[in-house]
Amino acid sequence: MIPMELNNLVNILLVDDDEDCRMLIRDAIESAHIKNHIDEVADGKEALDFLYQKNQYANAQRPGLIFLDIDMPIMNGIETLKVIKSDPQLRWIPVVMMTAITDDKEKRLAAENGANSYTVKPTDPMRFIDTVLSATQYWLGIHQYPEEIIKGP
Hints:
CATH class: Alpha Beta
Oligomer: single chain
Strand order of the largest sheet: 2-1-3-4-5
Number of domains: 1
Radius of gyration: 14 Å
Helix content: 40-55%
Strand content: 5-15%
């Protein structure tokens, strides 16, 4: 396991309309003894409300890592990604697209709009957990955040 002391204050945001997927991601992260705070929302609009601290998220802490599904109601992941990556206050947040969509068109759209990673959700639960842990360990253990991002504004 990669030591994550440097980035242990970075919050994680899970954006997926499938509650079971969110639970599996959360459980995988927590089972690896990663202590970062994890928030969850069910669609892109709710994610933007969270990021802009609107409505019930007025006191939300800005995340330093986002796991974002593509195929969601109300506002899909690509639309959400476009907003995040076009905002100077948000574009620095790594966004890991985690989706069941294997289509090259979606991969290209995600890359063109600034996704930091595109991962297809494996159907095997153990492979899914391994995929989540690999992404989390990279972004929290290897990636170096500027100090002002870790400490916040």
